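[INFO] parsing input record for Urea transport system permease protein
[DEBUG] input buffer:
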Amino acid sequence: MARLVDRRMGVFLAALFVLTVALPVASSAAAGELVPAYLVSLVGKYLCYALLAVALDLGWGFCGILSLGHGAFFALGGYAMGMYLMRQIGPRGVYGDPVLPDFMVFLNWQELPWFWLGFDRFWFAALMVMAVPGLLAFVFGWFAFRSRVSGVYLSIITQAMTYALMLAFFRNEMGFGGNNGLTDFKDILGLDLTAASTRTGLFVASAVALAAGLLVARWITASRLGRVLVAIRDAEERARFLGYRVEHYKLFVFTVSAVMAGVAGALYVPQVGIINPGEFSPANSIEIVIWVALGGRGTLVGAALGAMLVALAKTLLTGWLPELWLFALGGLFVLVTLWLPRGVLGALEDGLAQLRPARTGAREEVRA
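[DEBUG] output buffer:
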């Protein structure tokens, strides 16, 4: 088995640790608020995106499963956390109902639906954050992979899946808030969501989750299982001919990837304060693919880096010239496809590799 933490992973985790420590300290009152406090939640959101990109890269980069529906798993994890946060509001809502969320009172619901039961407990919500996306991925993958659906056909049906879920969650009858979604959250685990300490805790939790996701993905890909996944990605029929049950390997990595996406969604929701059906949009799932392609497919670290870079660019550009963002995003994808086939991380590593011989030659000339 290869090293769990190679140089690439080590550098990224070290940088992540420095960011996790430095940003909350710099935004604290004790440090004179060197950076705005809102940056803690903003960067926390970026870290959730990075975990989502790692989840997609695990399946696409190492097993060739190009999913255009990972936004659905992200949104389902977010809804599971949102349901817990809604149950914590209690009588503090607009209508003062101790059990029913405000949107249910507004729609004249008389009792809490059965699928909302248990979400007043954090442990149950945390379990559903992983179980719901994981179960959906398992059932979907069971039928898709056993039917040997792959390539562009798999991408299309994953996109159809997330689009169908988006349409379903837009309906008020579903019991998830309709087009308004779930919002107006008050606290989590008894802690005020608007408090600086809570925002910092969520930011740190996002960083820890990203580090854990990277290590889990690295552990899978660096093992013998990972070598089989790469073989399936490069030559699926040959792997099947050698006796490997290809559908089992695909199903495993697809389910693990969905669970990671669900965790990312659960950490995202309390930091942004809302979850609505727009998160199921197929455009969001396509954007995740661009993150991974830009950062470097099949690198894990590159996927996380790509997600954070694109998210930062989106924040800046939508503030300056919002009408140009989609053109810029499309241009990024074309740029990566034509000139950065290994992504930003690959380009950086190639540049560093070219500098090393030049430095070595310069040292030898000096010695001579």
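[INFO] The longest strand covers residues 182-183.
[INFO] shutting down worker
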